[in-house]
Amino acid sequence: MKISLVIPEKNEEQLIARCLQSVLDQTHKPHEVIVVDNTSTDTTRLVAESYVEQFKKRDISLVILS
To answer: Is pLDDT of 6 > 90?
Structure first.
């Protein structure tokens, strides 16, 4: 079974790292994580992008959409 996780966010720079780390820490990992950035005006997108390599190392696709 393939699992996709969609995370909608806007101006969540304080929480997005915690959220993505929580996904990585799960025992049953999704096959893909889609972060939908709703025109954030802070560094939320940059924080999410910093997790791309960590997800790639665990064979999880991390997609960031605007």
So the answer is: yes
Q: What is the pLDDT of residues 18-33, one digit of tens each?
A: 999 999 999 999 999 9
Q: Kindly tell me the sign of the dihedral angle through the C-alpha atoms of 37, 56, 27, 29.
A: positive
As a residue count, the chain comes to 66
**Residue 42, number of CB atoms within 10 A of its CB:** 13
Task: Give the predicted TM-score (pTM) of the model.
Answer: 0.91
Q: Are 12 and 40 contacting, i.e. CB atoms less than 8 angstroms apart? A: yes
Q: Render the burial of 21-31: b for 16+ CB within 10 Å, e for the rest.
A: eebeeeeeebe
CB–CB of 29/55 below 8 Å? no
